[in-house]
Design a protein that fits this description.
seven-stranded parallel β-sheet; 9 helices; about 10% strand; General stress protein 39; alpha/beta; about 280 residues; oxidoreductase; EC 1.-.-.-; about 40% helix; NAD(P)-bd_dom_sf; Rossmann fold
Length: about 280
C-alpha cells in the first residue's frame, strides 16, 4: 500500500475535525458487502470520524442500521451519515457527551424508539492529550479523559444491556499504549488500559448471557486524534516508525471491529485484536 506523505499540521481542539486533515484519512471499505450484519442494529460511539467513521460505513455496507453517537463534531457526523446512507443503510445521529450517564441512557432510548432493538455496541469515542509534565497535569484534564474514555464505555454498556440478547456483541477500543505504555500519553494509556480490563471482565460477566465482549488495540492510525494531540512538527510523517513504515488507515482497523461484531467472531470473547503495523506486544 502506498503511504500518502503526512505534512506538518495541528488543530487546537479535541476531538479534532476530520474535514481539516491533509491528507484525508482513508475510511472506505475495500470489498463488496456480503450481509454479515444484515438486519442488525449497531451503535458506534465516536462514529463521526476516524476509526468510528470507517466502522460505521463498513457496518452499513454489511447490512446494519447504524446509530452514530458523537460529542459535537456535527460537520463530520453529517458527512458520515451521508456515507452510511450511500451504502443503502439507515443512519441516526445522536449528539451529546457520553461521559454523562443520562446522555447514554437517552442515546440508547433513541435507538430503541427508532428501530426497536440493539444488537451491537461499539465503544470507540475517546479524547487524548500529551502529558507534557505529568506532575502538573490538572485534575480537570484527568477527569475529562476518564469521563470520555472510561465512564462513557461503562455507562453506554449499562444502558445497552437491558436490550442486548443472546448473540449480541460489544467491542471496545483500546490501544497499543495499553500494552506498551507511552511516556507522553500517560493518562490516555491508563484509560486505554482500563478499557482493556473492562472488556476482559465484562466478557466473563456476560458469558452466561451469550453476549461477546472484545477489544481492538490500534497502533499509529491516521485519525483526528493525531493533529488534535501533537505539535505540527511531530505530525509530519506520523507512523513512519512502525515496522511497516507508515501509519495505518481507519479502514484497516474497521475490519477488526467487523470480525468481532459479526458471527465470524463467534468463538472470540475477552480477546484483543492488534492492527498496529507489526508491533509485537503482549496479548
Amino acid at each position: 500500500m502506498t503511504d500518502p506523505k503526512i505534512p506538518p499540521q495541528s488543530q487546537d481542539s479535541m476531538p479534532a475535525d476530520e474535514f481539516r486533515m491533509d491528507p484525508a484519512p482513508d475510511y472506505a471499505p475495500r470489498h463488496p458487502g456480503v450481509g454479515k450484519l444484515r438486519d442488525k442494529v449497531a451503535i458506534v460511539c465516536g462514529g463521526d470520524s476516524g476509526i468510528g467513521r470507517a466502522i460505521s460505513v463498513l457496518f452499513a455496507r454489511e447490512g446494519a442500521r447504524v446509530a452514530i453517537a458523537y460529542l459535537e463534531e456535527s460537520r463530520d457526523a453529517e458527512e458520515t451519515k451521508r456515507l452510511v446512507e450511500e451504502e443503502g443503510a439507515e443512519c441516526l445521529l445522536i449528539e451529546g457527551d457520553l461521559g454523562q450517564k443520562d446522555r447514554c441512557e437517552t442515546a440508547v432510548a433513541k435507538v430503541i424508539d427508532t428501530w426497536g432493538k440493539l444488537d451491537i455496541l461499539i465503544n470507540n469515542g475517546a479524547q487524548q492529550w500529551l502529558d507534557e509534565d505529568f506532575a502538573d497535569l490538572s485534575e480537570e484534564r484527568i477527569d475529562r479523559m476518564l469521563a470520555s474514555n472510561v465512564k462513557a464505555y461503562m455507562f453506554m454498556t449499562q444502558a445497552a444491556l437491558p436490550h442486548l440478547k443472546e448473540g449480541a456483541a460489544i467491542v471496545n477500543t483500546s490501544s497499543i499504549n495499553a500494552f506498551a505504555g507511552n511516556a507522553s500519553l500517560v493518562t490516555y494509556s491508563t484509560t486505554r488500559g482500563a478499557s482493556l480490563a473492562f472488556s476482559r471482565s465484562m466478557a466473563k460477566n456476560l458469558m452466561d448471557r451469550g453476549i461477546r465482549v472484545n477489544a481492538v488495540a490500534p497502533g499509529p492510525i491516521w485519525t483526528p486524534f493525531i493533529p488534535g494531540t501533537m505539535p505540527a512538527e511531530q505530525v509530519e510523517d506520523f507512523g513512519s516508525g512502525a515496522p511497516m513504515g507508515r501509519a495505518g488507515q481507519p479502514w484497516e482497523v474497521a475490519t477488526a471491529f467487523l470480525f468481532l461484531a459479526s458471527s465470524d467472531g463467534n468463538y472470540f470473547t475477552g480477546q484483543t485484536l492488534h492492527p498496529n503495523g507489526g508491533m509485537v506486544v503482549g496479548a
